[in-house]
Design a protein that fits this description.
The chain has about 280 residues and is mostly helical. It has one domain. It is about 70% helix and about 0% strand. The protein contains 12 helices and no strands. α5 crosses α6, α8 crosses α9 and α10 packs antiparallel against α11. The two termini are about 25 Å apart. Keywords: Membrane, Transmembrane, Transmembrane helix.
Length: about 280
């Protein structure tokens, strides 16, 4: 089994060969007005670290630690915002667009290493519904945190102590889900079950998760310092750089999941063709 560094090196090569797909993480990064606003509003030097698993489209925000604007807990939306139809419509539209882009993106990621056309639009049509459900589920699960908007820091910290471990465990258990969706061409429930089965077996799945988080932790501090601390230029350079890094991470994970999943056709690590299992099918 190749090491995480070998896999990531191949992922970078794949990303360079498929740069058009980086437009998706660029678009999603630019659409996150809250994070862009936080970076532009920050004045000073900021160095932080992120610990990220490849459970979704990886963008610059998967690697960059955003400075905290204050001592209160922010859930992004307040109860008052939810009562505003325009704000709610904007949030729903964002989830729908993110789901559509994710469906096309992950479908294309499964095609790209095999040397097949991206078929982005076809993948959006095929996988939009399961990716929408996959996007809505965590939002729905964490929606009670909206009630903490503006809460004192002490209350927020107490809640985070309880919530963060749950989020981390869920991310580990289900990070393979979007890849299995397209590799197996299956439904969301089946992909969730398959990811859970791989996760509970540990082994290569666990080792890859630890290695991936470690790689992100190495890249995150310098990228965070540059993007946040260098006004405007940091964002202008960081967004596309983060998109390429994210594309490399997603492509690396696609190859990895195809390798360890017994029901997926693997990719030839020395080339762009499907393995012999794909030919038999």
């Amino acid at each position: 089994m190749p090491s995480i560094t070998t896999r990531l090196s191949k992922g970078v090569d794949d990303a360079i060969a498929h740069l058009p797909l980086a437009l998706v993480p660029i678009a999603l990064a630019l659409a996150d007005a809250n994070k862009i606003g936080a970076v532009l509003a920050f004045d000073g030097v900021h160095v932080g670290v992120r610990f990220t698993l490849p459970v979704s489209v990886l963008s610059v925000w998967s690697f960059v630690s955003i400075p905290n604007a204050g001592g209160a807990v922010s859930a992004g939306l307040s109860p008052g915002d939810i009562a505003d139809p325009s704000v709610l419509a904007f949030a729903v539209t964002g989830i729908v667009l993110t789901s559509a882009l994710s469906a096309g993106y992950f479908g294309a990621l499964a095609n790209a290493p095999a040397g097949e056309p991206y078929r982005f639009a076809a993948n959006v049509r095929r996988y939009f519904a399961p990716f929408l459900a996959f996007s809505v589920a965590p939002v729905a699960a964490l929606s009670p945190l909206i009630l903490l908007s503006g809460a004192p820091a002490g209350v927020g910290i107490a809640v985070l102590v309880l919530v963060v471990p749950v989020v981390v465990v869920a991310a580990y258990l289900f990070y393979a889900t979007p890849y299995l969706l397209v590799l197996r061409d299956t439904d969301l429930v089946s992909a969730l079950r398959a990811s859970y089965a791989l996760a509970t077996e540990g082994g290569a799945y666990l080792s890859y998760a630890v290695g991936f988080v470690g790689a992100v932790a190495v890249v995150s501090p310098p990228l965070s310092a540059f993007v946040v601390s260098v006004p405007v230029i940091g964002l202008a350079v960081g967004v596309p750089v983060g998109a390429v890094l994210g594309l490399a991470g997603n492509l690396t994970t696609m190859r990895f999941v195809a390798d360890i999943d017994p029901e997926s056709a693997g990719f030839d690590c020395n080339g762009d063709d499907r393995g012999s299992d794909a030919e038999e099918r």
